[in-house]
Amino acid sequence: MSSTELPFVPPADLLSKAAAVRVAEGERLRSVRLPGITLAVRSRPPAREGLPPALYVHGLGGSSQNWSALMPLLDDVTDNEAVDLPGFGDSPPPDDGNYSVTGHARAVIRYLDACGRGPVHLFGNSLGGAIVTRVAAVRPDLVRTLTLVSPALPEIRVQRTAVPTGLLAVPGVASLFTRFTREWTAEQRVRGVMALCYGDPGRVSPEGFRHAVEEMERRLGLPYFWDAMARSARGIVNAYTVGGQHGLWRQAERVLAPTLLVYGGRDRLVGYRMAQRAARAFRDSRLLTLPDAGHVAMMEYPETVATAFREFLADTGKSAAGTDTEGAADGVPANESTGG
Q1: Considering the domain boundaries, does residue 86 fall inside one?
Q2: Whose CB has fewer CB within 10 Å in the chain, the N or C terminal residue?
């Protein structure tokens, strides 16, 4: 694995028409080259040495910037990094063009294996939630805890407001949409995305909206933007149809790590009704429901999510201590997972 600091201006061969990648105060952005992929990794210095590592994975159309509001609130309890999935943020497309949930999960695993930071506190939102669920199921050695914000797990009755996103998976639709929306400004696109993803778009500050517009303009300058979106959307749809041991709900049941679930009552992409099913599927889970939040609670209510994670850490720490004691007395292995 090789790692280099990313400049504020992205590589000219990929982003000749794009603006600079935004790096918030206190953040560092570096490029990590691995076999078959190059990943941009956003990080913050921890408050002190020796804190357990955390890795954050964004959703469809997002980037590591989606976690910039939450990470500073956890600097004193975790050593934080957020990854740009291949083809998103500042990460170029994967060499093999694989944007499936499994392909993205493989990229996360490859990074964790190469950097040697595991096991980590693993966070995922939307598509990222499906990805890290798969990571936790197949590589439990890499995961301390799992935090899922509106994870994109299969739904039988998909919300009507989520249908347009799913239609991106249909071959040819992305190119048709591109032609249809050619005259749309970056501001119009951002307002549409925020109306879909936020419970109350009015919570976005003028500065936050301006940064989002700048990022949208940058992404629209990427030659692979719509291809990455369409193929990743297709990956979600395909993952929804997989049954047996590779199905996402079956893999959720296999997750051993303590899991914090966060669902928004105004989510237009992932059904709020799925919260209870997820709480039953993950064997050691805690559920936080935010009635006024939409699809990106960590961006809308970062303080609330941070507080819930801190309490979750304290709770899992007490459980681990209790398990050690009980295991010694009852002959149960100290790492045996119990239902929650």
Answers
A1: yes
A2: N
**How many domains is the chain partitioned into structurally?**
1
Task: Report the CATH number that the domain containing residue 207 is assigned in CATH.
Answer: 3.40.50.1820
Residue 164 inside a domain? The answer is: yes
Nearest to residue 107, comparing CAs of 7, 40, 22, 54? 40
User: pLDDT value at position 1?
Assistant: 66
Asked if residue 41 lies in contact with residue 32, where contact means CB atoms within 8 angstroms, the answer is: yes
Give the model's pLDDT for residue 253. Answer: 96
Q: 143: alpha, beta or left, given left = phi > 0 and alpha = psi -120 to 50? A: beta
Residue 335: inside a domain, yes or no? no
133-155, pLDDT tens digit by residue?
999 999 999 999 999 999 999 87
List the strands of the sheet with 79-83, edge to edge: 2-5, 28-34, 37-43, 79-83, 53-57, 120-125, 143-149, 259-264, 285-290
Query: Which one, of 259, 199, 205, 200, lies nearest residue 69 by Cα?
Result: 205
Residue partners of 139: CB distance under 8 A and separation at least 6: 109, 112
Ramachandran bin of 86, using left for φ above 0, alpha for ψ from -120 to 50, beta for the remaining angles: beta
CA angle 174, 176, 179 (to 5 degrees): 110
Q: In angstroms, rounded to a whole number, what is the distance separating the alpha carbons of residues 306 and 319? A: 20
Give the single-character DSSP code of 76: T
- Whether 340 is in a domain gets the answer no
- Residues of the domain holding 166: 2-330
| Stretches in the chain below the pLDDT threshold 70 | 1-20, 156-183, 319-340
The set of residues, in sequence order, having a beta carbon less than 8 Å from that of 277 and lying 6+ positions away, is none
Tell me the residue type at 64.
S
Q: How far apart are CA 154 and CA 272, in angstroms?
A: 13
Q: Please, are residues 234 and 116 in contact by the beta-carbon 8 Å criterion?
A: no
What is the structure's pLDDT at 319? 60
Which two structure tokens, joined as six digits, stand for 13? 């061969």
Looking at this protein, which amino acid is placed at residue 24? A
Q: How far, in Å, CA of 309 to CA of 312, rounded?
A: 5
